[in-house]
Write a structure and sequence with these properties.
With 265 residues, the chain is an alpha/beta fold. 38% of the residues lie in helices and 12% in strands. It has a domain of 175 residues: NAD(P)-binding Rossmann-like Domain (Rossmann fold), CATH 3.40.50.
Amino acid sequence: MVNDVSGGTGPRPAENVVQEIRAAGGSADANFDDVSNWEGAQRLIAQGIDRDGELDILVCNAGIVRDRTLVNMSAEEWDAVIQVHLGGHFGPMHFAGAHWRGRSKAAGAPVYGRIIATSSEAGLFGHDGQINYSAAKAGIAAMAVVAGRELDRYGVTANAICPRARTAMTAGVVPDMEAKPTGEVDNWDPEAIPPFVTYLAGPAAADINGQVFVVYGATVKRMQMWSPMAEIVSDQPWTDDELARRVPELGKGGPMTNHSFEEYQ
């Protein structure tokens, strides 16, 4: 199943992808539901199950950008990005998870299920002018971790990828995205992402669950989420004066710059 809600004149994006799959010898159907909508997500998963009898793999990739700084962003720009990213992941994951739970309980054994969610380094590190996008992508990474824990008992894994890819969404956001000459590693080539997605969807990744990966070019990084950097402990309840004396031990830290995602390597 290939889902994309995009309309417009001529063939829709989902139809184009379906034709590519069929031309390569595969079998595919298009779905045009808005998966950020509860009913739309339910119809997509139901259509996939009706088509093949069961569901094995769910790749969530719904996303839009409405870039604006914190003080200039409208409620509509905030709501649209949060709904498409978080709603567009949660709805399909919910109905797919319910399907796998039902199958597992009926069989009395684990089943085969894979979720690959699409987060972003903006969600891990933040990106100026993308407070809505960064918040949504951080939420998606957390959703994958929680889904992996909850669905593991049914045989299902859930992981998130943070891809770097030259797409319509990233155009103008990050500099130095020109294509490299043939034979050179291109860190923004979108064709570099699918092999790792198919790996996570396959049997070889059965023990990989609740993880977040940054993927680009010929590089895959497993990320470790928030970890303590420093700690202060007291044998007495904190007072204002004691905190003022001890908190400097934690170090100052500061906002991370984001001239380029390359700084996060």
